[in-house]
Amino acid sequence: MKKNYLLLLLLQLCTTVHAQQITPTPDQIKAITPEWKGERSADGRPHVSDKLLQRLKAVHLEEAWGILRNKGYMNQFEGDWMVLDKDSAMTGRAVTAQYWPMRPDVDKLVKDKGKAEGRIGAPNSWPIDVLKNGDIYVADSYGKVVDGTLIGDNLGNAIYAKSGRGVVFYGSVRDMEGLEEIKGFNAWIKGYDPSYIQQMMLGGINVPVRIGRATVLPGDAILAKKGGVVFIPAHLLEEVVLNAEFISLRDQFGHQRLREGKYTPGQIDTQWTDAIKQDFLKWLDSNADKLPMTRQELDQFMKDRTW
Predict the structure, then answer these.
(1) Consecutive 10-residue runs of the chain (307 residues): their mean pLDDT?
(2) For residue 2, what are the CA distances in angstroms to 29, 49, 115, 250, 291?
(3) Architecture of domain 2-234
C-alpha cells in the first residue's frame, strides 16, 4: 500500500500542471524525502544545517562521490560545466525547477495557475521568489543554450540578494559580464548566449529533476566545485561530511608519520594495527585544533566505523 501511494504521488509530481500544481505541497515534499528526520523549511524541504554546509566546502568531490556510491547512490554527480568563478566552492540547499519545450496549451495552464496564486512576472522568475538564504537555484532546462537563457544580471542580482548563493543550470545564462560583477554570486551552467529565453515553459518548482546524469530532489545538499557538482540527499549529508573529515584526519596523520619514518607505506596503506590506531588517537589529542568536528562527534563516529 505504501509503495502504491508513493508511486501515485510521484506520478502526480511529474504531471504537476495537469493537476493544477506548480509547487508540491509541504506534505508532498515530505513524502518524497521520507529518510530526512530533521528540521524542514516551511515549504517542506529538508533544511540541513548551515554548519554542515560550511564544513562541506572542504570535502573533495571524489570523497563525497565515493561515499554516496558506497551507500548505493550511483547517480549524484554531473561534470563538464562552465563555471563563473572556478576558484570558489559553493554549497547550499536545492530549490529545483523543471523547464520544458514550449507547448501553448500547457503553458497557459501554468500561467493561469500562477496568476491565481498571485505570482508576479514571467514564470522563469517564480523559482527565484521562493529562495531563502542558503538556497541554490537548480534548474533542468534540458541543455538548451540558444534562446534558453534562464537569467541575466537582473535576475542574478535577485538570486544573490535572496539566497547569498548562485545557480546550477542544466542550461544557459545571458549577461555573463554583468553576472561576474555580482560579488559572491556563482554559476554552474552548460553554456552562455546573448539571446533571451524563448519557446520554453516552466513545468514545476521543487519537483524532482534530472541534472545530466544526476537525480535531484528539493532540499538536497549541493557541493559545487570546479570539477563538477555532487547532489547529496539531505539524510546522508552528515555522514558524508564526517566520513570525509575522518579520512582527511587519517591522511594528515599518515603523511606525518611517513615523513617521520615511523611507519612504512605498507603499514599505513593497509588495515591499521591496534598500535597504529592507539597512536592515531594520541595524535588526535595533541592536534585538537585540527579537528573540523567536535571530539564528541568524532568519538561517536569512530564507534561505528571499522577504520
Answers:
(1) 50 49 96 98 98 97 95 97 96 98 96 95 97 98 98 98 98 97 98 97 98 98 98 97 93 96 96 95 92 90 79
(2) 16, 29, 35, 42, 42
(3) 3-Layer(bba) Sandwich (3.50)
